[in-house]
Design a protein that fits this description.
458 residues, binds ligand F0G, globular, 16 helices, five-stranded mixed beta sheet, three-stranded antiparallel beta sheet, Aspartate Aminotransferase, domain 2, alpha/beta
Length: 458
């Protein structure tokens, strides 16, 4: 008999989590104005709000913390991290930042001007936020298959090269500061971008003289999918694949809270010294001196080790298998999930789950609230709340997909936790017709409203 799959680690330290009663959860979610960002984490049993910054560090990472060099300038921790980043990405220059959006802030300060056009594949909300904040425009060139949750396309994060070329043709070169490709593409369901597509983007970019930037938060998961799904890569090493991916880019932004497996941190990687120098000015202003930026020495040490572990085959297999385990359970229960499964999360198609609730009543957020009520499981909405209002017309933007995201923290939960999440969603699915109304907005912020929005029953 073939041996079953088991995790590639054992557990050295645990953290208690608490169950609650339905009555308690009802009171807490009302107090939170139906916005799960307002819940206290101790009122959550299984927290799948995000996979960002909440992974479990290894014993090697905790030991590396102790050796952190907190020198203001020239710390050994900086050089240790620099060497790992260069090994994995091939980028000779880097700037540490406190997290991914800080990397965006610094790089975009150096590159994006009012009126610019930034094509990409379903830009993540902070990326789009930093573009729109500068009165520039993000143009989504993701392949159309990405917007149908039932199509089994292996690389739903891909850029539609025809759409991209149309954008490159339609605007003068100096209005397009760069093309940004998000690997894996979070907003389209944690979907990977193929090597072939990255190379296609590179070729087009070179033809039009435009730089390519990779939003790399989950680059190792992307490399995993290339290894599994793209011909010619089955025998390649994850790190070689990653190197080949980054060779298609001129620079990268990184939220290390994902595939870096640290609680806080980010960086920008550069090939070009001039751009590095230009961005350094903003890094010093917004983040910190170039050899620490937004990070302490110990955090840079833990990140250097995290990047090594995060690009190991066994780790990635454990990680992606757990996500697929949850996906398969949900599919077996008939719950409509986005396929293929994402690298970091399972996405439930809320429009197919609650076809009778209008999108204007925030159908995905309605499901987020129900899941919390059912089992104390915290998920997040990737739908109309997140899509925010059009910056010019101030009308709600209704995205094609209304998703509930179950993002799985790295090395944190067991498959028993996944079973609870799956059964909780099944129970709601069984009584879905009894849930007749969605939610309405009571108050919201002018940008990135989903974090602080207050909602009421519609
Ligand atoms: N890019 C992508 C693709 C992301 O998923 C995120 C964060 C960022 C950039 C910004 O990085 O949080 O370190 O500032 N995503 C988190 C999430 C918040 O829950 O998906 P950050």
């Amino acid at each position: 008999m073939e041996l079953p799959f088991a995790e590639s680690y054992k557990i050295k330290m645990v953290e208690p989590i608490r169950k609650s009663t339905p009555a308690q959860r009802e009171a807490w979610i009302r107090e939170a104005k139906f916005n799960v960002f307002n819940l206290r984490s101790e009122h959550v049993f299984i927290d799948l709000l995000t996979d960002s910054g909440n992974g479990a560090m290894s014993d090697m990472q905790w030991s590396a913390l102790m050796q952190g060099d907190e020198s203001y300038a020239g710390a050994s921790s900086y050089y240790r991290l620099k060497s790992v980043i260069e090994d994995i990405t091939g980028f000779p220059y880097f700037l540490p930042t406190h997290q991914g959006r800080a990397a965006e802030n610094v790089l975009f300060s150096a590159m994006v001007r009012e009126g610019d056009i930034v094509p990409g594949n379903s830009h993540f909300d902070t990326t789009k936020g930093h573009i729109e904040f500068r009165k520039a425009q993000a143009v989504d060139c993701t392949i159309s298959q990405a917007f149908d949750t039932t199509i089994e396309h292996p690389f739903k994060g891909n850029i539609d090269l025809m759409k991209l070329e149309q954008v490159l043709k339609s605007y003068p070169r100096d209005r397009i500061p760069f093309i940004i490709v998000t690997i894996t593409c979070n907003s389209s369901g944690g979907q990977p971008v193929s090597m072939e597509n990255l190379k296609g983007v590179r070729r087009l970019a070179e033809r039009y003289g435009i730089p390519v930037i990779l939003d790399s938060a989950r680059f190792a998961e992307n490399a995993w999918f290339i290894k599994l799904r793209e011909k010619d890569y089955h025998d390649s090493d994850i790190r070689n694949i990653a190197g080949e991916m980054f060779a298609c880019a001129d620079a990268m932004t990184m939220s290390c809270k994902k595939d870096g497996i640290v609680n806080m941190g980010g960086f920008i990687g550069f090939r070009d010294e001039e751009l590095y120098k230009k961005a350094s000015v903003y890094n010093i202003m917004f983040e910190g001196y170039n050899t620490y930026g937004g990070m302490s020495g110990r955090d840079m040490n833990a990140l250097a080790q995290g990047l090594i572990e995060g690009t190991e085959f066994d780790y990635l297999q454990t990680r992606i298998n757990q996500v697929a385990y949850l996906g398969n359970k949900l599919r077996d229960f008939g719950v409509p999930v986005l396929v293929p499964y994402g690298g970091h999360a399972i996405f439930v198609d809320a429009k197919r789950f609650f076809p009778h609730i209008p999108v204007s009543e925030f159908v995905a957020q309605t499901l987020v609230v129900e899941l919390y009520r059912e089992a104390g499981v915290r998920a997040t909405e990737i739908g109309t709340l997140l899509a925010d209002r059009d910056p010019v017309s101030r009308e709600n933007r209704y995205p094609e997909l209304e998703l509930l995201r179950l993002a799985i923290p790295r090395r944190v939960y067991t498959n028993n936790h996944m079973d609870v999440v799956a059964v909780a969603l099944k129970n709601i699915y069984d009584r879905r017709k009894d849930i007749k109304r969605g939610l309405k907005i009571i108050s919201e912020a002018p940008i990135m409203r989903h974090f602080t929005v207050e909602l009421g029953m519609a």
